[in-house]
Design a protein that fits this description.
Blueprint (H helix, E strand, L loop, with lengths): L5 E5 L9 H13 L4 E5 L2 H10 L4 E4 L16 H7 L3 E4 L2 H7 L3 H13 L3 E6 L3 H5 L3 H12 L6 H4 E5 L13 H19 L1 H6 L1 E5 L4 H8 L6 E4 L6 H16 L1
Parallel strand pairs: 1-2, 1-8, 2-3, 3-4, 4-5, 5-6, 6-7, 7-8
The structure holds 1,3-dihydroxyacetonephosphate.
1,3-dihydroxyacetonephosphate binds next to strand 8.
Length: 253
């Protein structure tokens, strides 16, 4: 990995205030691991407290509404996230696409609303097992990217892409290194076409799906993998720091 790897923990719908001790422990250790950029996306209810408790790592959200405000009971705007201390927001996670019927256009609108208030975004894409088996993985991901990526001025500088094959999320199954490399190369091509050679070359591409310390070296070592988006293994400081340590070692080596 040429640039500083970015390791992001997505806590999904896990965590009450008792879990802040994990965030604190991650933050303390992350201070020593200056070779790795570390961030956590806790549930909405913990964003403010995590920001206060963990001053060194990045803190973000897992979703936002596309509108600035209004009659949207139960929803959270990008401005609210920023006010709570978030620096970024994950949009288009496959669990939201599946559970809430989010389309690429919805994801793009959310990303634009986040950029408009100064948040960075992690745009998630990834194929289902059926789509991979049908040989359509790259075309599906390309289509998701073209429909989901924000196009506002300077968007490329605030965007990270996370490639998360749906069938690898929470299953313990992972693609081969060759498959990850091929997909990340394909994503890079789309990014360059979309944002232009120079801007598209700078966007970070993370891999996500069953990343743990044991497979991190292999997955992070695939072509053009700029870091990882980690679910289950980010829930304890011990397992998350294991991944961070692998990423740090790869930087040193
Ligand atoms: O969806 C993910 C992160 O956003 C990945 O989850 P797991 O690491 O639990 O497979």
């Amino acid at each position: 990995m040429a640039v500083r790897p970015y390791i992001v923990g997505n806590w999904k719908m896990h965590g009450t205030r008792s879990m802040l001790s994990e965030a604190r422990a991650i933050d303390r250790a992350a201070e020593r691991l200056i070779k790795v950029e570390v961030a956590l996306a806790p549930p909405f209810t913990l964003i403010h407290a995590t920001r206060k408790e963990a001053g060194l790592i990045g803190v973000g959200a897992q979703d936002c509404h596309a509108a600035e405000g209004g009659a949207h009971t139960g929803d959270i705007s990008a401005a609210m996230l920023k006010d709570a201390g978030a620096g970024f927001v994950i949009v288009g996670h496959s669990e939201r696409r599946a559970d809430h019927g989010e389309t690429d256009a919805d994801v793009k609108a959310k990303a634009e609303s986040a950029l408009a208030v100064g948040l960075s975004v992690i745009v998630c894409v990834g194929e289902t097992e059926e789509q991979r088996d049908a040989g359509k993985a790259e075309s599906v991901v390309a289509r998701q990217l073209k429909g989901s990526l924000p196009t506002a001025d300077g968007a490329a500088e605030k965007v990270t892409v996370a490639y998360e094959p749906v069938w690898a999320i929470g299953t313990g199954r992972t693609p081969t290194t060759d498959d990850v490399s091929a997909m990340h190369r394909a994503i890079r091509k789309v990014l360059k076409d979309f944002y232009g050679e120079e801007a598209g070359a700078k966007v970070r591409i993370l891999y996500g799906g069953s990343v743990k310390a044991e497979n991190a070296a292999e997955l992070l070592g695939a072509d053009d993998v700029g870091g990882a988006l980690v679910g289950g293994a980010s829930l304890t400081a011990e397992s998350f720091l294991g991944i961070i340590a692998v990423a740090a070692e790869m930087q040193e080596g």
